[in-house]
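Before the break, one more example. Copy the sequence into your notebook; we will annotate it together after we see the structure.
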Amino acid sequence: VDSSYGVDGGDRSAIEVLRVGNKWGPDEQVAEWCGTISPADLAIPCWLVGHLYTDKADSRPALMAIECSTGSPGIVAQTDLMRRGYPNFYIYKRPLKAAGGGWSSDVGWWTTSATRPVLTEDGVKSIISGELIVNSPYLVEEMSSFGPQFTRAGMKRLEHAPGYHDD
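Here is what the structure looks like once it is written out:
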């Protein structure tokens, strides 16, 4: 789940549903919801989509990975879902340097300099190789502006072109 602030003309919130592949088939996008909606209201479509795609093997709603990095509006939707009792969230594990080591157990997806390439570069590679099938023509169209951009520091990173969105 990629949340937005719900401002007209700005980024939109997006919910992508992926079926995890196995030896008989690749990962595949099976559903998508996208719209201009406040972070507080985003919890409702998240709840509905998550329960619509309940895992038949364990009878739990879909695993929900909401982007919750510092400053992200996704934390609002995630907090509301947690308050409502949604039971199945992605847990971001990272090594702890303080407190004697161990691992964090932050709820939600955290986009960092270490995790962003996993989403962007590995994602693009998976689509090109056929390991991930994307069925949404809207997502394909929006991602057509996605490519190498350069930061002010001269670092290359995959990003949408200026004036475009990647929701």
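Helices lie at 39-52, 74-84, 116-129, 137-143. The beta strands are 13-19, 27-35, 91-92, 106-107, 132-133, 146-150, 156-160. Try to locate both features in your own notes.
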